[in-house]
Each structure stands twice: as C-alpha cells, then as structure tokens.
Specification:
The protein is mainly β. Helices cover about 0% and strands about 45% of the residues.
Length: about 80
C-alpha cells in the first residue's frame, strides 16, 4: 500500500545467496496486462533484498518476482515446463 509515494519491498527466504532478483511493481490495471509501474534487477548478497520504489501514486500495488539463480535475466524451465 503506497500512501506517501513510496513502496518498500523486502524479500527473504532465498535457497541460495547468489544470483539476482527480477522484481516488478504493478498497479491494479497493470497486473493482468504485465504492464509494470517499475521493475528492477537486484543482486542477492545475503539473506534478504530490499527494494525502495519512490514517486508512486497512492494506492494498492502487487509485486511479481523471480529468483534468477544463474543470472541470465529470465525465468528458466526444465524439460517438462516447470520453473
């Protein structure tokens, strides 16, 4: 919930402290259309990653993210299509 023009997202629980997090912030209109308000690629160097997004309109937001373990900038799938 953005009230002061800022959204703060903290992600924990990584299975490995390596790679990066691909993260995107969506408003209600952009959620199903994949039109992010903001996005980022954040390196993982410890047990958590915190992302501060400034200058957003007041409202409700959602976050989608992927732990990109191999650093190739995308979600990878195995031979049967499972991430």
């Amino acid at each position: 919930l953005a009230q002061d023009g800022r959204v703060l997202v903290t992600v924990t629980g990584f299975k490995a402290a390596s790679g990066q997090v691909l993260i995107a912030l969506y408003d209600e209109a952009g959620w199903s259309s994949e039109q992010a308000v903001r996005d980022a690629m954040l390196p993982i160097a410890g047990e958590s990653v915190t992302w501060s997004v400034e200058g957003v309109k007041p409202g409700r937001y959602g976050v989608k993210l992927v732990h990109d373990v191999n650093g190739d900038g995308k979600m990878n799938f195995n031979a049967v299509g499972i991430p």
